[in-house]
Amino acid sequence: MRYIFRSFLFLIACTSYAAAQEKTESPLKLTMGEPHVIVRGIRPEEQLWGPYQFPRPYRLKDRYVVSVHVKNDDISNYGSTALWFESRDKGKTWQEVDASVAQECGLLLANGDRVYMPPESGVDVSEYKQIPWNKYTPAYDFSKQAKEGTLPIPDGMTFWMGGTTINAYNADRLPPSLSKKEWTLYRIPAGQTQPVLEQAGVDWPYLTRVVHVSRSGKKVLKSIFPRGNPKLGPDGAIWVSVFSGEGHLNPENGQYSPYYSAELFRSEDNGKTFQRRSHLEYEANGHEFPYKSGGFSDSDFEFMPDGSIVWFLRSTWYSSTGKEWDPMYMTRSTDMGRTWSKPIKFDRVGILPRLCRLENGMTLLCYARPGTFVRAALNDSGTKWTEPLVVMTPGDRSGLANKPVAEPTFHDWDGSCNNPEIVPLDDNSALLFYSDFYYPDENGVKRKTILCRKITVE
């Protein structure tokens, strides 16, 4: 049985389906350099999932820096202090630095400002009174804002495996202290060195806030900070991708959906305010229940040389489906994000798609689970891509553990958080960042390790 499962996973991870792409000899070749250690963490048998995962790199003027999540993977910990490391030799060696470097990692704007939007943790609202469901009568007013200290009857609800109930609320219905539509932003004004804390206003119609309710009764309001990497568009605006909470209200009709939705926001005033440019509902293959997807969540986009935008979308969400792998989708816009093509399957897997443009104009894409892959665009429109360069095998890696288990879980099998990131290095190469739970230290002990390696386009 294990052999059949292993063969099945390997098959789905390796078989790629690029939209409208013919199998032709590629004029490009992707190669990878040796891995370089950023930090070694705990042994995987101490805690497989959570600490020492999720690297997030930034390219500064004279160096590269990367943050590493060292807490449990929980909405209460998004904003927890991470470990930070820097390299001044293009990723070959790394040294730990103070976490205050985060505020230097902002996007450099045309006016010389740098703006950084940090991750934010959820808010404990356990003390808030929940209006009981038996108060839901035909006369209940869903347009009325709740009083302070009170949560109204939800607009919708869904559930995660393990007993978590997730209540969804139109943000306008929450009490004033919880209904604000804003993102925290640090700005280093041009010519200065000290960051200034700001709250950027966010125009998000039908913004839906979700509250996770655990079996113990603890209630946490999930944060709404942008999970994507901000980019400067050819129009001079700041663009950033976001996704809804676990369940949201469709802005087209106000109806509740149990899926995630993907969003793009723009700022034309250097990060003072953001307006929603694009909204994508998940309905790629029609409605099914139990639904086979968490919806469109983690995503990334890139501005292509022909003037179009490509947008890649994750659909995997284990807590909703029990599967750690599902298709990655792609959509394109030819009118600067006002309208989008119907999302289609790009590959059978795809966690945390990330794109970057090299100085030579080439566009690279990385994604994962199981395995880790990199591709390069073969044309200016992003409709054709190279076959994937396999950075980490999608096969069973559980035998590499310090103490191999007879019946591996998926993450035993996978041996990585599979949340890769990629940033430009020079004219024709980039640095790929990823985790390996089975990377040996100097004594041969396997540790959860954050790595980077050079990816070159030849």
Automatic annotation (TrEMBL):
Transmembrane segments: none annotated. Residues 1-18 form the signal peptide. InterPro entries: Sialidase_sf. Keywords: Signal. This is Exo-alpha-sialidase.
